[in-house]
Amino acid sequence: MIKRLFFCLFMWGMCSGLSAQTLEGPLPFFRSFLDGNLTKITFPEPNEPGASGWDSKGNYKRKNRAAESVWGLQLTEGKEEIGAFYLPEYIFSTEDGLLIEFEYIMMYTNVGEAGVTDGICMFLVDATTNEYIGANLKYGAEGAGFGYTHRRSAHTDIRYGVTSITGIKGGYLAVALDQGHFKNWRFDNYEMRNGIPYGSAGIANIQSETYNTRSNVTIRGAAGRDEKVITTSQKTHRIQDGRWGFPVLITRHTGWNEKTGLEDPYSDGLRNKAGFRLNTETGEYEQYVTPRIDKPFCIAGGKEFHHSGESAYRKAIIALEPNIVGGGFRITVTIQHETEKTVVIEDYTYPSSLQYTENGLPFQLVAGEYPTVVYYSNPPQTELALERPSKLVIGFMASTGQLTAYTNIIRNLRITPLYGASSEDDIYDHRRGPVIVRPLDNDVAYQLGGDRPNASYDNLDLTSFRMWIDEKHCLGNGVFEYEEEGVGKWKYDPESGEMMFFPEKGVGGEVVIWYDVKGKHTPYAEEKYRSSLAKIVINLIDDEG
Fold first, then answer.
1. What whole-number distance in Å separates Cα of residue 253 and Cα of residue 211?
2. What are the pLDDT digits (tens) for 97-140?
3. Collapsed DSSP state (helix, strand, coil) of residue 532
4. Per-residue pLDDT reduced to its tens digit, 227-256
5. How would you write 220-231 as a 3-class SS string?
6. Residues 6+ apart with CB under 8 A from 60
7. I want to staple 413 with a disulfide (CB 3.0 to 4.6 A). Which of 102, 180, 202, 409 is the partner?
8. CA–CA separation, 469 vs 346, rounded Å?
9. In 2-43, which ranges are E strands?
């Protein structure tokens, strides 16, 4: 929220002091990826590194491309790329629930490019044992697989195309900012993978091509564990760990088309029609478009941004709430576009088991230099158990396909307990002189009551406010004054929740201070429920000419 302030305050005297502390402990987690700090971040290797061939420089195309940039942690920049990282030390209990928030940039790398290519996903992997983490955590298929799923291929020799790829073994969940293909099934000789079938082919549960949209939020489920035996009337198939499963559970369109742009906000549009959810008992997809999306938006902002007031601003907010009765999670995905927050998927209950169609099964290969695949006209259904692991790790990936060079960047990653206090960035424009602002007015903490804890500003402990000079250094509890030489003085009032800033003469442009806060009610007064870092930005404007 942009707050414009055009008033002056009389000066308060203040003294200043600084004691440096470093953010420790697993939660809350915050990393801006803007300061070169990549500690406790692991960049995994790929499964089957040579399965997609080599680039012009002789490197595997499946090489992890994650690298620092001035805008954040850049995961991709070119065509046929994948970038991935995960947080090995931030193992969390599935009984606690999490809130995962991150800003992201999705845009064409070069001016004049066209087309839509893949996207970004957050993934969870079973960390109950070391079987799937550490050196054993390797990412899956690039392109439409987003690095999460497997890819079945008819080719067995890289000289004749791409070959098969194992998905993330132990993968439990992937939530994708999907530009169109993560939700789709594939049925080609170079890629066979389950998903939602669109078009007019004679396949069961086919959906209208009209609903094969770009700009979606899509959730896929767990990797298949161990060897899977699927017997049909024609053949018995034995499929290895990580080469089956990963079903699409739910997808929703957000109201943008690559040819026509944003939908009319005054009509229902495809955003309130093009949504599907897997019927876990029948294994078929059913139209599902709840909640209603009133304001259409593109999942990609399309360019760099600095603050939430800009049209390109994008932020993903993923809430994982434990499902006490049936296990798994209730999942809510909200996308902030500019200052608007839109709930795209709400309270999706992750099942403990399901039926789905496994179409990565060619019935027969006809020999030749380029193998010909004889497909099943209706691939078989099978069961997938999705028992919730007791512990999970979190990671992020982005991928691009063959047609378009695309830049995908993540920054300002916050991970907090689900009912931890929530703090939002505050951006103010101010003309000359001292300023007083109320940064906590758009923040909340929780209090027990009813079926779920209630969120409110009134639940905040105003005295728990801590000032940070950057994401690494905190002034400490009860230190409410700070003077930055050559910039100005900050002073926080723990009774009113107001922050005062006194700029030094001649200072202009942006000045920034960071903060966190927590609640006052048990159990949310505990330190683990403290908010992640938020920033107060005051843009000092001298318009006197």
1. 9
2. 899 999 999 999 998 888 888 999 999 999 999 999 999 999 99
3. coil
4. 999 999 888 999 999 999 999 999 999 999
5. ECCECCCCEEEE
6. 46, 49, 50, 52, 53, 54
7. 102
8. 36
9. 2-5, 29-31
